[in-house]
Amino acid sequence: MNEYLILFIRSVVTYFTLVLFARIMGRKQISQLTYFDYVVGITIGSIASTASVEKNVDIYEGIFCIIIWSVLTILISEITLKNIKLRLLIDSEPLLIIDKGKVIYKNMKKARYNIGDLLMQLRVKDIFYITEVEIAILEPDGKLSVLKKSEHTTLTIEDMNIIKPKTGMMVDLILDGNILSSHLQQIQKDEDWVIAQLKARNINNIKDVVFAGIQADQQMYIVTKDD
């Protein structure tokens, strides 16, 4: 068979195999790329390209490897949906980089994130002074989420003749039906208080709560499985 025809067939087969499993694995590979997703995506792409052009690699072996990597990724995604500790282990967790205008260097060091990266990402958000920042968090995908101090936020019609409420970070209290005890300690509350808040909103089973958090104004935000 013509050499170019063989390459064409191999490329078509691996292409559609890759497209198929990319769709099965979901859109997270594109919209919320964590370091784990990045490594998986690069590896699967590398396997597909090798299977396409390397004559000494059996195309069926390449497809088999793509299937194994894809199935493992799907399984891990399903497990991490229910296991918070494993999710944090694989995807890592958000890191507080700036708190009330003060840089937390130990967290930057932990993430191998330098001051140049921080200043660049702040400038992208039109922030040129660290002291303007109330809170800055480095997300697992490498993006920086920033909350400005009240006095540095843009004035809106709502602000006219209204005392601006205190700004702050929403504290996560419940995630996938699990109470986050360490976060409760931050706001000096206990599990009984959380359960009472849920009952006041006619939520009797904590396992029905996908997410619950408390804002700086002490308002609780809740997402249930029925929402």
From TrEMBL:
<feature type="domain" description="YetF C-terminal">
    <location>
        <begin position="82"/>
        <end position="214"/>
    </location>
</feature>
<feature type="transmembrane region" description="Helical">
    <location>
        <begin position="59"/>
        <end position="81"/>
    </location>
</feature>
<dbReference type="InterPro" id="IPR007353">
    <property type="entry name" value="DUF421"/>
</dbReference>
<feature type="domain" description="YetF-like N-terminal transmembrane">
    <location>
        <begin position="5"/>
        <end position="77"/>
    </location>
</feature>
<keyword id="KW-1003">Cell membrane</keyword>
<dbReference type="InterPro" id="IPR023090">
    <property type="entry name" value="UPF0702_alpha/beta_dom_sf"/>
</dbReference>
<keyword id="KW-0472">Membrane</keyword>
<keyword id="KW-0812">Transmembrane</keyword>
<protein>
    <submittedName>
        <fullName>DUF421 domain-containing protein</fullName>
    </submittedName>
</protein>
<dbReference type="InterPro" id="IPR048454">
    <property type="entry name" value="YetF_N"/>
</dbReference>
<keyword id="KW-1133">Transmembrane helix</keyword>
<comment type="similarity">
    <text>Belongs to the UPF0702 family.</text>
</comment>
<dbReference type="Pfam" id="PF04239">
    <property type="entry name" value="DUF421"/>
</dbReference>
<feature type="transmembrane region" description="Helical">
    <location>
        <begin position="6"/>
        <end position="23"/>
    </location>
</feature>
<dbReference type="Pfam" id="PF20730">
    <property type="entry name" value="YetF_N"/>
</dbReference>
